[in-house]
Design brief:
2 domains; 16 helices; 4-stranded antiparallel β-sheet; D-Maltodextrin-Binding Protein, domain 2; alpha+beta
């Protein structure tokens, strides 16, 4: 990180610490001490059971502080993290992710898979209703599917093999696939697979400003783009009563404000805190890292005529020059980890494709760049998002790294909507951004699969990559599938249109007892316990 950027960041964190101490003195708290990470395994189960027993359930309200605002909850449009979380909580799903990101039935009662893996027959629960008490039928499921399946914003990796969807009656769905896919059911846990009523959503462009719900929560108050979203438990939810009656999501873009409001009790749960904040929070606040199943990448636009970044050796030189360990340590204070391949760290499928384990090799970078028409360097524009803790600092480190190659980087730190617009329009040279997906085939598909967001934005496309992804999607043997994943990584690194930098882990902080609300692990969706599960201590 540049010295000036680091100086400003340290001043901000010092100010946070001073303000927290003053605030704690005013409200009669002791001086903040380092908070502990929640226990895991059996001890966590007993701890959550004890916490649930010690409080009156359901809780009235939990207030979440988010660094992102929500402009749309339409699953057919690209959504940021905050919108995806809200969409899943306020929508019906055939299957839903649990807290460990296992896929479990939600509106589906039973399902069968044919012996060849090509036909999925699902029976819905009886008596399903939306939050306005209107019935939910398979016609609503088919309508919702048809509405989103072709949209550019919707990842096609797990659905391109779907040949037909039929609803022979109001409670039965028959999905016919062209090829088997061991991860097919996982698609139904994603935000694009949510269910809304055909009678209301069909043809009404304003419907998703205040949609009805067949999920655990429904929208009580919200203005698109506004600073506040109030959710209320859906009395018709098929999964039963929730452990929290209301969830209020507040848009708090300023990092210092989120930390202070959490410390002083006006927020209960905060996502994506800067790592130094954990040393300045009161004991009532637990902090812990969570894998968001995402990776921070440098993304290059190779479709721009005459751009140095269209040269593959230039892209390789940049990858070799990036100091990933420095980014992890200084921009993310050790919460992130340096990448060695395209999958985020910690997965059994992770493959170390980057040379020298991803460590910086400036000598090799200079030698490679010297073999290109850009040996003397060039100017480059790099975009990143202002709302994400650590991203600007990471981009500044990369900017400094590239000066050693005589690459002059102009950094633009912009709002999320601006960054996404430049990405989807192809009006960018390079971005420091994020790509996620779990299981691994989703990240590979989003990154390299024809018709998905990032290949479209960057101008990348290879028929042999598409063939590999198709084979990996339908391969039922785990070892053979792993070998196909490794081939995907090798092809990806040949072109290095995406440069893996760090795994995007997030620091979460919570005052909520009993882990009633938390991230799915790994992943970025919010999971809220039902009342029955909370009382049982699960």
């Amino acid at each position: 990180m540049g010295r000036e950027a680091m100086r400003r960041y340290r001043i901000t964190m010092a100010l946070v610490a001073v303000l927290l101490i003053l605030g704690n003195l005013l409200i009669g708290c002791s001086t903040p001490t380092r908070t502990s990470t929640p226990a895991t395994g059996a001890s966590e189960t007993s701890a959550t059971a004890a916490a649930a027993a010690a409080i009156s359930l359901p809780l009235d309200k939990v207030r979440i502080g988010h660094h992102l605002s929500m402009t749309s909850l339409d699953p057919a449009k690209y959504q940021n993290l905050a919108a995806r979380q809200a969409t899943v909580l306020t929508s019906g799903q055939l299957f839903r992710f649990d807290e460990k990101r296992n896929i479990v039935p939600d509106l589906v009662q039973t399902w069968d898979v044919s012996s060849d893996g090509l036909i999925y027959t699902m029976k819905l629960r009886e008596g399903l209703k939306f939050s306005d008490s209107s019935p939910l039928t398979t016609q609503d499921v088919v309508f919702s599917w048809e509405r989103v399946k072709g949209e550019v914003s919707v990842d096609k990796t797990l659905i391109k093999m779907v040949e037909t969807v039929e609803s022979p009656d109001a409670w039965t769905l028959v999905w016919k696939l062209r090829t088997p896919n061991p991860d097919f059911l996982r698609w139904f846990g994603e935000y694009a697979a949510v269910i809304h009523p055909k009678r209301l959503a069909d043809g009404d462009p304003k419907y998703f400003d205040h949609p009805v719900s067949a999920g655990p929560y429904m929208i009580k108050e919200w203005v698109p783009g506004g600073p506040r979203l109030l959710l209320e438990a859906n009395p018709y939810y098929a999964g039963g009563q929730m452990s929290i009656r209301q969830i209020e999501v507040l848009y708090v873009p300023d990092t210092t404000s989120r930390v202070l409001q959490l410390a002083q009790g006006s927020l209960d749960y905060v996502l994506d805190l800067p790592s130094p904040a954990r040393d300045n929070l009161p004991p009532a606040v637990a902090t812990y890292p969570r894998s968001s199943a995402t990776t921070n990448f440098l993304v290059f636009n190779i479709a721009r005529t005459g751009s140095p970044l269209a040269n593959r050796d230039v892209r390789h030189a940049i990858s070799l020059a990036v100091d990933r360990q420095d980014v992890a340590n200084k921009a993310f204070f050790g919460v992130a980890s340096p990448q060695t391949g395209y999958l985020y760290a910690g997965l059994p499928e992770t493959y170390d494709i980057l040379p020298n384990g991803g460590k910086r090799d400036l000598e090799a970078a200079r030698k490679l760049l010297a073999s290109t028409p850009y040996a003397k360097g060039f100017d480059m524009n790099l975009v990143t998002r202002s709302s994400q803790p650590g991203w600007k600092e990471a981009a500044l480190i990369i900017k400094e790294n590239l000066t050693d190659l005589n690459i002059n980087v102009t950094l633009e730190v912009v709002e999320d909507a601006v960054a996404m617009k430049s990405l989807t329009s192809g009006n960018f040279e390079a971005q420091f951004t994020i790509i996620g997906g779990y299981p691994p085939i989703l990240l590979y598909g989003a990154s390299f699969g024809k018709g998905n967001l990032y290949p479209t934005a960057t101008g990348y496309g290879r028929s042999d990559m598409d063939e590999l992804l198709a084979k990996a999607s339908s391969e039922m043997d785990n070892q053979k599938r792993l070998e196909l994943f490794h081939q995907v990584e090798k092809l990806a690194y040949e072109d290095v249109v995406l440069v893996p930098v760090v795994s995007n882990n997030q620091l979460l902080a919570s005052r909520v007892p009993g882990m009633l609300i938390d991230y799915t692990t790994p992943g970025y969706y919010l999971y809220v316990k039902t009342l029955a599960k909370a009382k049982s201590g699960q």
